[in-house]
């Protein structure tokens, strides 16, 4: 996929509204996200920067913020111990706490999507909000990688259940998918279609404007 | 030209530091005498005020303000410059600018994302509280986006996170403090 420092800087320069950097296998591999790498990416950015992967305690989050992240995303560790969300919100403020949810068939999965949980996505999102999450980053495992569009049903249901912003993730293939996602969610995340062709970001933004989506 | 960035032990101050370094502005620890003092905006109000006091920045900022030396307050930094904020059950601010910060009552809270500031373009916001003051100089979706009062310039948005437009905003703050 290339050098994340260079790629992040390029996205920032070319009009991305935010950068999300997730070390998705951090929990599985038992490591914390590479703080030093986060610091080098931050140096190249002039846009908001969310970092996730392996955050298990307030101290981990503080290290990432000190390195230049604006928000931390938590996933598996929050499912194991929901009080983590409460602690992060109290220490960092809700605006810095993103709860990432991976859902398949409406049910939450953990440990990079490898393990079942008891939670329905809608209920876990509500619980996360009550505990102080400032945003929900919602990835549909069903839609992820299909390039057939975001999971609008799941995203709409979660966005209706909470009052904090919801970021739709998984399934983006073309501009109209993003436009549809922004009808139900407050933001849409793009990954693989940009990583394989970073120049796509500029053309995508132009296409979105043509579709009547208000962009900066 | 130099800038002092008030650390208070929480959140992402590094982005502000990087943004000023990009503008070629030198950094100093001297909050009282720097050409420009920046009160960045991260964390919760009570922790931030405690952190400011513990480091003596509260007194240094009041002294600067009285001497008409420029201060830039960003996000929570702007809110702390007011008399008080509703956050954390009520916290007394620095009292540099008459007014108070109150919790946002409309839309999704926290209000996170890019939003249009009237006549200025889009900037990045991330907040749950906003200023209520007679000294607002710009609004975004009905929310106070900028305050100017004496030597204080306060912005609710994060210029250090607002791309090229944000960099220009910081550049203007720097050139104002040169004058």
Describe what this molecule looks like in 3D.
The complex is a heterodimer of chains A (216) and B (179). Chain A has 216 residues and is of the alpha/beta class. Chain A has helices at 4-13, 26-29, 35-43, 58-67, 76-80, 83-92, 121-130, 152-161, 175-184, 192-195, 200-210, and strands at residues 19-22, 49-52, 71-74, 97-104, 107-110, 115-120, 135-140, 166-169, 187-189. In chain A, helix 9 links the parallel strand 8 and strand 9 (187-189). The longest helix of chain A has 11 residues, at 200-210. The radius of gyration of chain A is 16 Å and the shape is globular. The two termini of chain A are 27 Å apart. Chain B is an alpha/beta fold and 179 residues long. The interface between A and B is medium-sized, with 34 and 33 residues.
What topology does this entry show?
The complex is a heterodimer of chains A (216) and B (179).
Chain A: H1 4-13, E1 19-22, H2 26-29, H3 35-43, E2 49-52, H4 58-67, E3 71-74, H5 76-80, H6 83-92, E4 97-104, E5 107-110, E6 115-120, H7 121-130, E7 135-140, H8 152-161, E8 166-169, H9 175-184, E9 187-189, H10 192-195, H11 200-210
Parallel strand pairs in A: 1-2, 2-3, 3-4, 4-7, 7-8, 8-9
Antiparallel strand pairs in A: 4-5, 5-6
Chain B: E1 2-5, H1 14-22, E2 26-28, E3 36-39, H2 45-54, H3 57-66, E4 71-74, H4 76-80, E5 82-85, E6 91-92, E7 97-103, E8 111-117, E9 121-127, E10 129-132, E11 136-140, E12 143-149, E13 152-155, H5 163-178
Parallel strand pairs in B: 1-2, 1-3, 3-4, 4-13, 5-7
Antiparallel strand pairs in B: 5-6, 7-10, 8-9, 11-12, 12-13
């Amino acid at each position: 996929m290339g050098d994340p420092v260079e790629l992040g800087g390029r996205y920032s320069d070319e009009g991305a509204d935010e950068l999300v950097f997730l070390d998705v296998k951090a929990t599985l591999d038992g490591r914390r996200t590479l703080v030093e790498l986060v610091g080098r990416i931050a140096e190249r950015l002039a846009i908001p920067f969310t970092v996730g992967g392996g955050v298990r305690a307030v101290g981990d989050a503080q290290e990432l913020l000190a390195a230049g992240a604006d928000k931390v995303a938590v996933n598996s560790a929050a499912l194991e111990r929901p009080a983590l969300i409460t602690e992060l919100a109290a220490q960092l403020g809700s605006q810095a706490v993103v709860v990432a949810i991976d859902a398949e068939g409406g049910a939450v999965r953990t440990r990079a999507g490898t393990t079942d949980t008891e939670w329905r996505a809608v209920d876990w999102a509500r619980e996360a909000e009550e505990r102080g999450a400032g945003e929900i980053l919602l990835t549909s495992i069903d839609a992820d990688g299909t390039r057939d569009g975001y999971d609008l049903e799941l995203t709409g249901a979660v966005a209706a259940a909470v009052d904090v912003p919801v970021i739709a993730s998984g399934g983006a293939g073309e501009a109209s998918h993003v436009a549809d996602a922004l009808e139900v969610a407050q933001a849409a995340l793009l990954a693989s279609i940009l990583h394989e062709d970073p120049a796509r970001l500029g053309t995508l933004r132009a296409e979105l404007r043509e579709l009547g989506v208000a962009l900066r | 030209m130099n800038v002092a960035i008030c650390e208070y032990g929480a959140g992402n101050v590094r982005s502000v530091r990087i943004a000023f370094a990009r503008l070629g502005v030198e950094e100093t620890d001297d909050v009282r005498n720097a050409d420009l003092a920046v009160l960045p905006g991260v964390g919760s109000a009570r922790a931030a005020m405690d952190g400011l006091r513990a480091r003596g920045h509260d007194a240094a900022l009041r002294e600067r303000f009285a001497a008409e030396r420029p201060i830039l307050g960003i996000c929570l930094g702007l809110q702390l410059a007011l008399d008080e904020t509703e956050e954390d059950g009520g916290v007394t601010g620095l009292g540099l600018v008459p007014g108070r910060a109150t919790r946002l009552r409309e839309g999704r809270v926290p209000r996170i994302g890019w939003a249009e500031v009237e006549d200025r373009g889009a900037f990045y916001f991330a907040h749950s509280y906003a200023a209520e003051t007679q000294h607002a100089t710009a609004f975004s979706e009905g929310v106070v986006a900028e305050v100017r009062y004496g030597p204080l310039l306060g912005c609710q948005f994060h210029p250090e996170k607002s791309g090229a437009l944000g960099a220009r905003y910081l550049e203007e703050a720097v050139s104002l403090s040169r004058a």
